[in-house]
Each structure stands twice: as structure tokens, then as C-alpha cells.
Amino acid sequence: MLTAASDDFSFAGLKTSVRYFLQKHPELANDAQGVRDLCASVQAAIVQVLVAKTVRAARRIGVGCVTASGGVTCNRALRQALAAACERERLALRLAPGGLCTDNAGMIGAVAERKMRRGLGERELDEEIAPDWELEGVAS
What we know:
- By secondary structure, this protein is mainly alpha-helical.
- The protein folds into 2 domains: 12-100, no CATH class; 104-140, no CATH class.
- Helix content is 50%, strand content 6%.
- It contains 4 helices and 2 strands, in the order H-H-E-H-E-H.
- A two-stranded parallel sheet has the order 1-2.
- Helix 2 packs parallel to helix 3.
- The termini are far apart.
């Protein structure tokens, strides 16, 4: 992914590779250090891609500031690598505080709960997803 010109990234292939690796090496499940090493390697690969593509996109579009938020931004390795890369590239970095970097599913659940309490926007469970559903009426 590092050499692809696209800013897109998906780690589904990496997760699948790890799954098959573990199936081929079941003994690894009993090797605590081996599991830690595998997890650290996967994390390092993901962080490397996220940081490289983020900095490259910032440079390409000519912005001077990089921002990051969301659940993945709680990851210390990502925060440190982004900080180092942005400093090296002379880009300002604005990271949301860890306490505000919740998982997207948690945020959607909170919005749904607030809408439900106010009787707003009830949906059928099998209704198609619409990315432009209104969030009005959900403030505190």
C-alpha cells in the first residue's frame, strides 16, 4: 500500500493474512512472545501506511496542518508516529484528546439513543442506510 498512488487504505487483506498465518502456525497461540511480536508487527505495518499516506496527501494538496480523530487515534504508536512525521515534514498536527477519540459505532449509538428518547427519526431495522440522515435534535 505504501507505493500505491491512491490515498485509500483498507486492512482487510492484512487481517485475512494474519488469520491464515495463525491457522498455518497454531503453535503460535501458545507462545506469548510470538503473539506479542505478531501483534506489534501488524500494528507497525498499519501505522506506517496510515502515517505515510496522511503526510503524502497533506503535501500533495498543500495543507500545513494534519488532524486526526476517531477510535484509531487512541493508539499511542500512531499518535507518536504522526507527531514525528509531521515534525519532520514541518506540518502542524492537531490530535483530538484521547477521551474524545471514541469508536464510530459508539458515537452512532449515542446519536441513536438521543433521537429515540426524543421520538425522532425512527427507522426500521431492515431499512437501507442513508449517509445523509439528519442529526438535528440530538444536541445534549
